[in-house]
Design a protein that fits this description.
Layout lengths: L2 H15 L3 E2 L3 E7 L2 E7 L36 E4 L3 E5 L2 E2 L5 E5 L11 H13 L6 E7 L11 E6 L12 H5 L20 E4 L2 H6 L3 H26 L7 E6 L3 E7 L3 E5 L5 E5 L2 H4 L2 E4 L2 H9 L4 H8 L15
Parallel strand pairs: 1-6, 3-15
Antiparallel strand pairs: 2-3, 4-5, 5-7, 7-9, 8-9, 8-11, 10-12, 11-12, 13-14
Helix pairs in contact: 2-5
The structure holds BIS(adenosine)-5'-tetraphosphate (B4P).
The site of BIS(adenosine)-5'-tetraphosphate (B4P) has 26 residues, from strand 15.
Length: 326
């Protein structure tokens, strides 16, 4: 059976049996400097049980998790067993068919992605939703928005919206003129340190060798990681507990270093609140669970790109185009 059929079949059964919880959400958009942010308001998600023991606190993950939901996983959520990974349904989803790609053996969420992780993520992204656009993300480290310390990438299908490309950050990527695969870029309009590289689809699509695809994706990923550290050294003094967000679509990979997990926001009436932001925030997709959070996002000044800069790391001077890292 194809991966797409397995995803659908397992999802339908898990939803029916109550092993998976789907939370209804309202969607709205707010544009900032050409990026049409998708704001998802899911009030019922606030009732999701919080597992404080498994919250990432330090890179050493000194606090051992009491319960690891991925080892062993609930069998009702297992879509497919692979050699080194397991494809699971996300138990708490606001996007149907949201998948987790978890390591079969325990690895830390603070470790970088390996060639085999990237190869599996790419393959799942291409096949889990019958080729419809999708996004892989990885919340790495204690300030990345991750809540589970067991290594897991996530995969979601992207909605086809009329008001702009998906994910919303792609509109900034689309503005890179004469972009070349493998070249690493920074985008003037993003007020936080980041690196982004276009992927060579002709190469990946024509490759019939699993290792060749893995090696290519790993070369892109580690090139980006090096470039991100170069930027950090130029603009700040990176600490030992590095956190970052990773985003991969069929067109590009992007890395954003993180300084904080929570953004401090105030609504129009001055009421303060904290908002947890993960990789999806940097893709242009923000999640809120309370009406005051929604109101604060709708009115946040000076705009949502600056909100991201609050939890990322601001440039200390102008970003510049970077050299080919291949
Ligand atoms: P993490 O990397 O640790 O954390 P996260 O995605 O930020 O989700 P978090 O757990 O903090 O949930 P939140 O309320 O913010 O990923 C852990 C993953 O494991 C999560 O996907 C979690 O749901 C899942 N999980 C936990 N226990 C499980 C179990 N027993 N079996 C299987 N899976 C389990 O966000 C809720 C969800 O909405 C998350 O999936 C999040 O990724 C997603 N989300 C956040 N922003 C979104 C946006 N803008 N649009 C769509 N979805 C969004």
């Amino acid at each position: 059976m194809s991966l797409a059929s397995l995803v659908k079949q397992t999802y339908d059964a898990a939803l029916k049996s109550g092993d998976l919880l789907f939370f209804d959400a309202e969607k709205s958009t707010r544009s900032d400097n050409g990026v049409n942010f998708l704001i998802t308001y899911a009030p019922s998600l606030a009732s999701k049980p919080r597992n404080e023991e498994t919250k990432l606190e330090t890179l050493d993950e000194k606090k051992k998790p009491k319960v690891n939901p991925f080892l062993p996983p609930n069998p009702a959520l297992v879509v497919k067993e692979l050699d080194e990974h397991r494809v699971l349904l996300n138990k708490f989803c606001i996007v149907p068919h949201h998948l987790l790609i978890v390591s079969k053996e325990y690895r830390k969420q603070s470790e970088p992605l390996l060639p085999s992780d990237l190869g599996v993520a790419w393959k799942c992204m291409m096949s889990a939703y019958n080729g419809a656009p999708a996004l892989v993300f990885y919340n790495c480290g204690p300030y990345s928005g991750a809540s589970q310390p067991h290594k897991h990438m996530q995969l979601i299908p992207l909605e086809m919206l009329e008001d702009g490309p998906q994910p919303p950050i792609k509109s900034a990527f689309d503005e890179i003129k004469d972009r070349k695969a493998g070249q690493i870029y920074t985008l003037d309009k993003l007020p936080f340190i980041h690196v982004i590289t276009p992927l060579d689809r002709n190469f990946i699509d024509s490759s019939t060798d699993k290792e060749e695809t893995e090696d290519y994706l790993a070369q892109m990923f580690f090139g980006l990681l090096d470039a991100m550290f170069q930027q950090l050294r130029k603009h700040t003094s990176p600490g030992s507990e590095m956190s970052y967000n990773f985003i991969m679509t069929g067109q590009f990979m992007m890395l954003v270093p993180r300084a904080k997990e929570m953004a401090f926001i105030q609504d129009a009436d001055g009421r303060p609140t904290y908002l947890s932001i993960n990789s999806l925030g940097f893709a242009g997709m923000l999640l809120v669970k309370a009406p005051e959070e929604l109101k604060a996002l709708e009115t946040y000044e000076p705009g949502l790109l600056n909100l991201l800069a609050e939890v990322g790391i601001r440039w200390s001077d102008s970003p510049e185009e970077m050299v080919d890292a291949t």
